[in-house]
Amino acid sequence: MVPQPRCINRIRGKIILKDTTKDAVASFVKENCPEYYYVPPNFSFRGVTLLLGEPMPLGFKRKKRKILVPFVKPCFGPILVEVDAREGDFEYLAETLGGGGGKET
Fold it and tell me: In terms of Cα–Cα distance, which of 26, 30, 38 is closest to 78?
């Protein structure tokens, strides 16, 4: 069996926060995304396993077609990456993660 890739660099995006804390990432997502969902540790998004020690919010910016993805790099700590949403990403994530927070847009 081939191990699941665990490098966030495989999901091309813009780093929004780095050299920060899990609490800062969570606060940023909650304050800047009208809709967010808690993603559990080892959740797979676009074929990459998200390294998280605990559930963290993943944010939606539907109007801008952006997704804010939390990740913990073993050598650097928590980061937040903004990626362009692909067709079906919002629906897949909302359905799979359920129990969202924030307000719907």
Answer: 26
Residue (of 93, 22, 97, 96) closest to 61 by Cα position: 93
What tokens appear for 57 in the block? Answer: 């919010």
Nearest CA to 6 among 53, 56, 55, 42? 42
**Is position 10 within any domain?**
no
pTM of the model: 0.84
Give the range of the structural domain holding residue 52, as residue numbers without chain letter. Answer: 15-102
**Over 25-94, what HEC string results?**
HHHHHHHHCCEEEEECCCCEECCEECCCCCCEEEEEECCCCEEEEEEEECCCEEEEEEEECCCCHHHHHH
Whether 40 and 52 have beta carbons less than 8 Å apart is answered as yes
pLDDT mean values, one per 10 residues, the chain (105 residues) = 53 87 96 95 88 94 96 86 95 86 48
Question: Number of structural domains, the chain?
Answer: 1
